[in-house]
Amino acid sequence: MDLTIPRVLMWQFLVGVALAAVLWGVFGKVAGYSAVLGSLICVIPNAFLALRLVVPRSDPGAQALVGAAWIGEIMKLALTVLFFTLVFTQVRSLSAAALFAGFITSQLMVFSGLLMRHEQDTENSNGS
Q1: How far does Cα 7 stand from its chain's mean position?
Q2: Residues 17-26 as b or e (16 or more Cβ within 10 Å = b)
Q3: What is the 3-state secondary structure (H, E, C) of 68-106?
Q4: What is the pLDDT of residues 51-65, one digit of tens each?
Q5: What are the sequence ranges of the domains in the chain?
Q6: What is the DSSP letter of 58?
Q7: The pTM is what?
Q8: Longest dimension (CA), the chain
Q9: 122 CB neighbour count, 10 Å cutoff
Q10: How far apart are CA 44 and CA 20, in angstroms?
């Protein structure tokens, strides 16, 4: 079983929480929870997309996977816009810089998934 997707989601969240802890310690609680919110705005839509891609479908063909990916990506973008809108309209004390730092830092963790996948493919090709 390939654990790349759950690992990437886990690392996205953990890096966001670590950044939030650092910002909380340096700039205060508003920066800290703003960074956590930014991280969650990234992780939750990514988890939705991941679920769309890994849930078994009645049609296992490539066309069904592409359709699931399109719907998942559209919903991921819609959720991201919705969450940013909710945060900016509902959270009174907010650090926009920390919010975007949490979002961007978590989003950059997707690249770690590419490295994990490459490492796994290399191990599999050497072991065969």
Answers
A1: 11
A2: bebbeebbee
A3: HHHHHHHHHHHHHHHHHHHHHHHCCCCCHHHHHHHHHHH
A4: 888 876 777 778 878
A5: 4-119
A6: S
A7: 0.83
A8: 56
A9: 10
A10: 17
